Amino acid sequence: MWIEVGSTNNDPFVIAQYYLDCVRQVGGIPKIIRADCGTENVNVPVLQRFFHNQDQSFLYGKSSSNQRIEAWWGILKRGGMAWWINFFKDLRDSRLYIEDNVIEAECLKFCFMPVIREELHKFAIQWNLHKIRPSRNAESPSGRPDLLYHVPDLTGARDLMMQVSHEDVDMAEQLCGVRSPEHGCSEEFVELASLIMQERGHTMPTSPDNALVLFCSLIDDIADI
User: Fold this and answer.
1) pLDDT band (50, 70, 90) for residue 155
2) What is the maximum alpha-carbon separation in the chain?
3) pLDDT average, residue stretch 62-68
4) Rounded to whole angstroms, how far apart are CA atoms 137 and 60?
5) Residues 172 and 20 sit within 8 Å (Cβ to Cβ)
6) Which DSSP letter does residue 54 get?
7) Which residue in 90, 124, 191, 211 is deepest, having the highest Cβ count within 10 Å?
C-alpha cells in the first residue's frame, strides 16, 4: 500500500502520517490492521479505531509472527536495499562520510533520500505487478496484487474497505500526524544547499553516482564557507 523513506522509523506521528496519506489516497481504511507492539505504531490503532469506532479493527501481534511482512523485508533487501547498505558502509569506511558529523549527515540525507525514495516506489510498482503462485492457504489468493486489490471479483473476494471522509482524515492529521521532511533534513540546510546548487549549476540527483558527486561537492563548498 505504501513504502517510504524518512529520517526516522520510530516516531509514531510520522508513521501515522504515512497511514493517513494512504487512507486519503485510496479513500478508506481496511477492516483490520495488524502490527507489533513497537512504539512507532501507537498512533495507528488510535486512528484505526477512531475511523471504525470499534476496538477489533486493530490487532497486536509479535513481530516474529508477522511472517508475511518479515519475508517481504528479505525480498526488498535482495531486490536492491542490500546494495544501498553496502554502499553507505563503504562511504563510511573510506571516510568520505563521517557519521558523527552533523553537516555531513544532513548532506547525506539531502542528496540520497530522493534517489532512494524513487527506487522504493519503483520496487513497489514491480511488486504489485508480480504474480503470486497458488498456495494451499485459502487466505492467500494467487494472482497479481494490483488485480487482486482493484478487481476482487476475479477471485470471488469481497471489498472490505470502509470509506472515510476527507474531513475526518483532516481532523486525524491535525491530532496524530506529522509529515516527515521531504529531504529528511532541516529547512535551514535545504535552503543553504539549494543556494549552493543554484550558484554551481547543480540539479537534484537521479542516480547513486549523481548523488555521490553532489554530496562531495556540497561538503567541499560548505567547508569553504
Assistant:
1) confident
2) 65
3) 74
4) 22
5) yes
6) S
7) 211
